[in-house]
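Hey, resending since the last one bounced:
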Amino acid sequence: MIKKMVREHFMLSFPFVLGRENTVLENTLKPPQAAAATSKTTTDSTSSETTTTTTKAAAAVKVNGSDSDGFETASESGVSDKEEEQEQNVNKEISSKNTTEDQPKQDTRNDDELIQRGIEEANEAKLEGNRLFGNGQYEEALLQYDVALQVSPPDVPSSVELRSICHSNRGVCFLKLGKFEDTIKECSKALALNPSYMKALVRRGEAHEKLENFEEAIADLKKILELDPSNDQARRTIRRLEPLAAAKREKMKEEMIGKLKDMGNSLLGRFGMSIDNFKAVQDPNTGSYSISFQR
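The structure tokens again:
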């Protein structure tokens, strides 16, 4: 009876304590429901996040334009792009290599065509020069031979003979025009390309004879005889030119002696003497001279 009264008194005095206790008990008794609610909330949140992530991945895949399912990692995507880039580089290198290998063939073909075209044009100009020369139009023929030399490819074996002929033909044009120095120059160019070119030797020898270069003319004629021992014309010309060459040598000696005499007189005159005080006597056996002094 006393306990009951105490309990009732306690409840009247502290009703909120009991209510709190009941609340605590109630909360303690209902944890499964709260946990379920929490679990549901977490699940909904995770599902939402997963859906959002999947949507973003799908959008990324769509933007990239690939057929990826959206589950590859960033590193996998990077590797895939790198492999594709490497493959493209390899293809470019192969294409570049093929182009480089084909280029020399194309260049060679183009060079051959240019050389052939140049030779054809040079031959046409040379033939026109021959026609003009035959008509006595030497100046015009010179121009055509010059055109042939300009269009013919230099340093090409197939054009060496053509260039040599054109230089020799220019030489004979100058010979007809009386320009013997130019004849010698052109024929020398022809012989530089073809040392055994007989016509160039004949024309240069004739030009040397016209200029009274008898020694040089004889040298060209002897070269002709080396190439053609049966050339009687060259042999006869040599016999004709040898006396002229000897006379010219003697004349040159006399001229040299005269120049030396004048120089000696200018020096000896300071001492009251002259070259006349000295007498030169030629030795008939050796052809040399001895000098003797006389007052």
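The chain has ten helices and two strands.

Sorry for the duplicate.
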